[in-house]
TrEMBL record:
This is Putative transcriptional regulator. InterPro entries: Tscrpt_reg_PadR_N, WH-like_DNA-bd_sf, WH_DNA-bd_sf. Pfam families: PadR. It comes from Natronococcus occultus SP4. Residues 24-89 form the Transcription regulator PadR N-terminal domain. Gene3D superfamilies: Winged helix-like DNA-binding domain superfamily/Winged helix DNA-binding domain (1.10.10.10).
Length: 119
């Protein structure tokens, strides 16, 4: 079993990620991207500049954890994509979030409809 799959108690290591790291995974769930494209997506979400010194160490950690795969597009550009474990981490986070915020059936249906419409 890989480090990304479990930690003590069988809990996914993805549950130990920072919000920033989870946002990176969410962005990569749509499609593989190179670093600057990820940076732009994050800046759009946060409404402020994302420092290279913050982005790339977090990408490297996600690679080390087996949640993201890094490949070379050309000599100067790396592409990042989710691994199967990375997709599982995103799904786990969404499922957990929905289980915590949905308290009545009408709201649950509304949220499910929004999620379905986005795909």
């Amino acid at each position: 079993m890989s480090e990304a799959q479990s930690i003590s108690g069988g809990q996914s290591v993805a549950r130990e990620l920072t919000a920033f790291q989870n946002n990176i995974l969410t962005i990569l769930a749509k499609e593989p991207m190179y670093g600057l494209a990820i940076k732009r997506e994050l800046e759009e979400y946060y409404g402020t500049e994302v420092n290279h010194g913050r982005l790339y160490p977090n990408l490297d950690e996600l690679v080390e954890l087996g949640l993201v795969e890094k490949s070379e597009l050309d000599k100067r550009t790396n592409q990042y994509s989710l691994t199967d474990e990375g997709y599982e981490a995103v799904l786990d986070g969404v499922q957990w979030s929905l289980s915590k915020i949905v308290t009545d059936d009408d709201r649950a249906d509304e949220i499910r409809q929004l999620v379905d419409e986005s795909y």
